[in-house]
Amino acid sequence: MTTFDAIAVIDKPLGITSHDVVAKLRKSLNTKKIGHAGTLDPQASGVLVLGINRGTRFMQYFVADSKKYESIIRLGVATDSDDHDGTITFTKDNQLTRSEIEAALSAFRGPIMQKPSSVSAIKVNGRRAHDLVRAGEVVDLPARPVTVHELIMLDLEHKNIDGLQVTDITVHVHCSSGTYVRAIARDLGTALGVGGSVFTLRRTQAGGFDLSDASDLEDVAQMKFHKLGDIAVRILPTHEINDGFVKDIAHGRAIHIQAPEGDKLALLDTAGRLVAIGKQDAGVFQPDNVFLTRDDLSA
Fold it and tell me: Are 86 and 171 in the same domain?
């Protein structure tokens, strides 16, 4: 069984779940300890970040980071899942103008209250909302606060789909974790009086990871595995410590060092390995998570 600890970034293809990606990597890498940060629906592609072995514990430090997406929103078609794979519930011919859409988009920028799609991975009494919907239950999720940092219309195209006049817009979305682009499409369509749903959705960035970091799921031999120390340097304040301090940390002892104060500080050894993440206060470092153990030091 593999013992390496890493972060992997996959360009998830369409048609499979995030759990399918995890299952494939577990088999390919011969390890059970793999998890993902930020679910992508089967109908969505793009950046999916995974932790391998001790990398699963490291993901908590970036799982809540903001995300970026590129999406085609179809105005004129509403569905029960808020995307094109759902059952159509409402249609309306339209030839919306750019100015009409831009005026409506302004309501979805900044801090907003958003009701997630009922066909989502949110848990209701221990079960995923999408599982309850598929079982025939009615799910009404409460609105919650999210932030849309950017919502930019990149393109507009009028189309005739089997005799229905629709307006497709391509948008760039930069949003807080927990924001649903499908819900933006639904609510935008409602605001414009024509109905709306996501036609395509691609995540282009998750926190500090973008498509340039991503590997093809089908080519494990060429996959990029990022060391925890390398990622820590990218996303957290870091401080290098000597071997004596590394041993103290591995034995569970607090250490006295001159390092940046704060709740999140990553300690690296002289080889660049992630030793621990914790809090530095008044010259004393207290670890919350230790990534190098006594067994690692004696190996």
Answer: yes
